[in-house]
Amino acid sequence: MDAATPKPRENMGEPLPRIDARLKVTGQAGYPADLPAANITYGALATSDIAKGRVTRLHLDDARAVPGLLDIVTYGDMDKVEKPKFGNSGATSIGPLHDRTIFHDGQIIALAVAETFEAAEEAAQLIRAEYEEEKPTASFDSPGTKTVPAAGKSTILKEDVRAGDFDAAYAAAPVKIDARYSTPTQHHNPIELFSTTALWQGDQLIVHEPSQNVTGWKVELARQLKIDPANVRIVSPFIGGAFGSKGPMTPRTAIVAVAAKRLGRPVRCVTSRMQAFGTQTYRAETRHRIRIGAGKDGRITAFAHEGWEVTSRPDAYVVAGTSATGRMYDYGSVLTHVSLVRADRNTPGYMRSPPETPYVYALENAMDEMAVALGMDPVEFRRINEPKVEPIGKKPFSSRSLIQCYEQAADAFGWAKRDRKVGAMREGDWLIGMGCATAIYPTAAAPCAARVRLTSDGDVRVQCGSHEIGTGVRTVAGQMASERLGVPIGKVNVEMGDNNLPPAPVSGGSISTASVCSAVLKACDAIRAKLYAGATAEGGPLAGSHNEELDFADGKIVAKGGASAKIEDVFKIMQLGAIEEYAEFAPKGATPGALKKLYAGQPEFHGGDQDEDSVKYAFGAEFVEVRINSYTREIRVPRIVGAFAAGRIMNTRTARSQLMGGMIWGIGQALHEATEVDRRYARYVNRDLQDYLVPVNADIQDLQVILVPEIDHAVNPAGVKGLGELGNVGTAAAVASAVYHATGKRIRDLPIRIDQLIA
Amino acid sequence: MRPFIYEQPADISAAVAIASRFTTDDDQPTRANAQFIAGGTNLADYMKLGVAAPNRLLDLNRLEEPALRQIRVSDDGIRFGALVRMGEAADHGEVKRRYPVIADSLRLAASGQIRNMASLAGNVLQRTRCEYFRETSWACNKRVPGSGCAAMEGFNRQHAVLGASDACIATYHGDFAQALIALDAVIRAEGSRGARKIPFARLHRLPRDTPHIETDLAADEIITAIEVPAMPWARRSRYLKIRDRESYAFALASAAVVLDLDGDSVREARIALGGVATVPWRARAAEAALQGKKLDEASASAAAEAAFADAEPRQHNAFKIELGKRTLVRALLETRDMKV
């Protein structure tokens, strides 16, 4: 065991290597744009140079003259298909070629299709547009924004959460803070570029595209193209990073499908890194005002969290992390309000822990400020405000191991050695700061189907239309089958990423491990039941045993008393070569139509703050050390420790890897990441990885992940909370807290850079 | 990317001959129909982005002259062949020993992969990374003369505070060039008009009202070598680079410092500043301010004030003036404290 393969503690699975690791590191994993397609052609997008106005004329002659050009799809060519819809399966309602109106910078104005990628790109670059230009509104504070309440605009926020009388409690509080925070626009920038390959076989459309939601896309694409969903197949076997960016389908998919239909040949369109900034979604820019009132004893009596979020003109994308921040501590009274600020921007979307990352950043930075105002240790301050029930609906937590997380992380970090005085810790020319923050993410699950086959030779095939976006879900689904059916992981094959497989929900919201494993578990248990019946039948090798006395291990059915039967022999007795079971899992609280909706690409999420009996969240605590040069003020993070409790951990290796990736991203959010907007033109400026900075290896030094044991049977049959999005929540606040400790400067606007510290 | 003709000339004279056939005396090297390529880490990028569009590329990697690939150390100094890769020079024992400032400037630039590809001559000729230059949809006087400058009132956090003009505020982002200008390096070039030497300080041109004219080179001229004069006291030298992340980022501010100390006091100082100016920037006023002085925090600060006396901030880059000063102070004190 080394750091990458943590020794399983209670309720944790083995750190098995990823079952597709070898394929990935040897370049054999077939990502969608790598999949072969005979007689392929290449598409390249042309996009707008302005953010608001109308395209009055397109000059296509130069593009048409490029040798090898086959077609240009532009205005008028999409009229026979439906406009895109904004929602869980659709990134925006803007149909870029349905309408000559320009809603945002980088909007698609044409698709050039050619015999080669180079010719397509050249032609796309030669397409020139004439515009009737209007002055665009870039963001907060720009003239022309429209601010509306977010509540009720989206299923994400039905109403603003509140409890008690905030105003009275805040007015009466002897210690209070009132502060404003902000987070910038951020783009996912997965290493795998966005792409669509469309192939028609008669009436059948096959789309190779990296997707977190093949079933949802099938339905939405069929709607747009006005064809039977049964004729649409989305294939996405490997995804090179998604983080939410490949959750909702963008308008490009239908455009490429139309191009392929017109041409009668497959079309592959890989967008450039730059074009992704305007044609995909992104994390909305947010602002926050937080007020906290507390007694001198440190008990919070009043908490208010107001948020403002930039969205596009037509679509109400809502971030709204107030559901989590409003339930985090034992506040007494809670007031929240979320507003949308409409501007001339593309529609934002889900990005790893979409509500929690910005909102918990603001909350936890404020909690640190409050601890300072109280003269209290920030860990102690959180301990004092640890709730017995959540403050909004007064429901218990299904489990909550936050204090254990703080204790274990603080111990590993050496928090006790911190000198609380600001600026007191120093090594040579380097100021040292230490800070901490809470991580929280709602635990949800959705209906999911899976098919599992066990052969008499002990080979297992698991089929589930979920998506391997890099989280390791293919591995843990295989691990679940391996454990339940008593076969080694090497005998398990897992198929995912295709809507011809049993449907799974969108791979978002950290629901996949819980949902997929619960369905696989159910299918495996059905296989077990059949084999038990065969083994315990009259004259069978385990005749007389009851099912509850039996288990599967090492290719055998083992009875409590020690008797056993080889599975292969049970198959022989039963005259079977293989047993295949199709199982549908529905989480507790699912509506009667929930499974039907799964097949229609509309999975219901259950859990989080939605359930009647309890609220369900995973928690963590992160501790960060920063070093800041006393002359030049650059900030480096030599150490970070995170402890997390998330119910059953299926695989300690993939769990650690997810949390580590989240923490690294959190450091990036704290110190590096921001999409810069030229406010005069409402256009993105740093549209590539040269100027859009994320941490590199040298930025990450000593990083420790602690998996805290936790057992929670209330969340779902698999007992899994899911932790894909937990790791990057709170990190930026922990960094801000450490920067304050080192310098005495409270930075409230992310990212924290030299600019703010040197002034 | 536009289609182009690709040629691999066999030697320097063949390369010059082809280049002079397809260019005129008025052509800028960065705008000519025929352009040279070596490592390609900058030009290929800009060709993909449509910023550069030569229709003929002359690949210098097959040039047969062995000296182009050699680092020669002698009592006269060091001679770097133009095609020596950044990584080779950064790892060269004598370079590290005699001129730490050169080795540092190369080691702290780009990434390992890029350093293994990029040639030294190509590195000093790298073009600005200004976001508004990099993308053809913005107005840019450097890319399209007379079209305006979108950076001037735009997002100009990484732009220059020294050497800017009303036409251009794009930063020269290179690191190696700061070491070379501090050490009084000399460029050797060959073109259709013969071979010549160019003091490094004269290679790059200030933007003034012609930001599209970037260097003193003719379109058919090839850099063949970079010569650094002997300077025994250059062992006390270093390059300090301050950036948003620990590696693989351009300097927000940097300083190349070479010190000749007599006990505590400065016999001679060489100072160049990166990340803050439109061209490789020799800070002669700062050098003069230190001459004969005891080097301490106060004199270093006075030198830094002198270095940035003419700095002009824009909306988002004002912090660079203070950062530039502190970078220089820190570099001076750290160089003073080097054990040589």
From TrEMBL, chain A:
Gene Ontology MF terms: iron ion binding; oxidoreductase activity
Domain Aldehyde oxidase/xanthine dehydrogenase a/b hammerhead per the UniProt entry, residue ranges: 26-135
Keyword match Amino-acid biosynthesis: no
Listed SUPFAM superfamilies: CO dehydrogenase molybdoprotein N-domain-like, Molybdenum cofactor-binding domain
Domain of life: Bacteria
InterPro entries in alphabetical order: Ald_Oxase/Xan_DH_a/b, Ald_Oxase/Xan_DH_a/b_sf, Ald_Oxase/xanthine_DH-like, AldOxase/xan_DH_MoCoBD1, AldOxase/xan_DH_MoCoBD2, AldOxase/xan_DH_Mopterin-bd_sf
Key words, A-Z: Molybdenum, Oxidoreductase
Keyword Oxidoreductase: yes
Protein name per UniProt: Xanthine dehydrogenase family protein molybdopterin-binding subunit
Organism: Mesorhizobium tamadayense
Automatic annotation (TrEMBL), chain B:
Molecular functions (GO terms): FAD binding; oxidoreductase activity
Keyword flag Ubl conjugation: no
Coiled coil: none
Keywords carried by this UniProt record: FAD, Flavoprotein
PROSITE patterns per record: FAD_PCMH
InterPro entries noted in UniProt: CO_DH_flav_C, CO_DH_flav_C_dom_sf, Diverse_Substr_Oxidored, FAD-bd_PCMH, FAD-bd_PCMH-like_sf, FAD-bd_PCMH_sub1, FAD-bd_PCMH_sub2, Mopterin_DH_FAD-bd
Domain FAD-binding PCMH-type: 1-233
Protein name in UniProt: Xanthine dehydrogenase family protein subunit M
Organism encoding this protein: Mesorhizobium tamadayense
